[in-house]
Specification:
Blueprint: H1 3-9, E1 12-14, E2 18-20, E3 25-30, H2 34-37, E4 48-54, H3 55-62, E5 64-74, E6 80-87, E7 93-99, E8 104-110, E9 116-122, E10 125-130, E11 135-139
Antiparallel strand pairs: 1-5, 2-3, 2-8, 3-4, 5-6, 6-7, 7-8, 9-10, 10-11
């Protein structure tokens, strides 16, 4: 069992903004901007992916964070589920895509997103809402998120 799967099973993830996969690959995630942490309800949360992340190095240097799941929702096409929530500090959020059998496809940790409390779907786009009413839109057919 790799680092990401082991952490996920323990209710933890790397304490570093990133998108992590069960094969222990990762990419930087950027959610900086007023939509991520500003209490103006309904603002978009900027989201973009960066370069590769060394998962084991991140865990060694930054540690891990416990996460709480606040929602889980079946994908409209039945191919799996999305879940998300927050962490102990109140400013962190996470999202995860699970396969139909419940296994982890990817998980994203974001330090300044605030906890995510729900999701709705618009075609292939998942629209996540944080606890301040701000929205993060992810195209689930984009190669990095499929």
């Amino acid at each position: 069992m790799g680092t990401v799967v082991r952490l996920w099973a323990a209710g933890e993830m790397p304490y570093h903004d990133g998108l992590y996969r069960p094969d222990d690959t990762g990419r930087e995630v950027y959610v900086e901007g007023p939509g991520a942490y500003h209490p103006d309800a309904g603002q978009p949360i900027p989201f973009r992916l960066g370069g590769p992340v060394d998962v084991d190095l991140v865990v060694e240097e930054d540690g891990t964070a416990e996460v709480d799941h606040f929602f889980e929702s079946t994908l409209p096409d039945g191919s799996g589920r999305m879940c998300g929530g927050g962490g102990g500090m109140g400013n962190t959020g996470h999202l995860a895509r699970l396969n139909a059998d419940g296994s982890l496809r990817w998980v994203a940790f974001m330090y300044c997103s605030n906890p995510f409390v729900g999701v709705r779907y618009e075609g292939t786009t998942a629209v996540f809402t944080n606890d301040w009413g701000n929205e993060l839109r992810l195209d689930l057919v984009a190669p990095a998120l499929a």
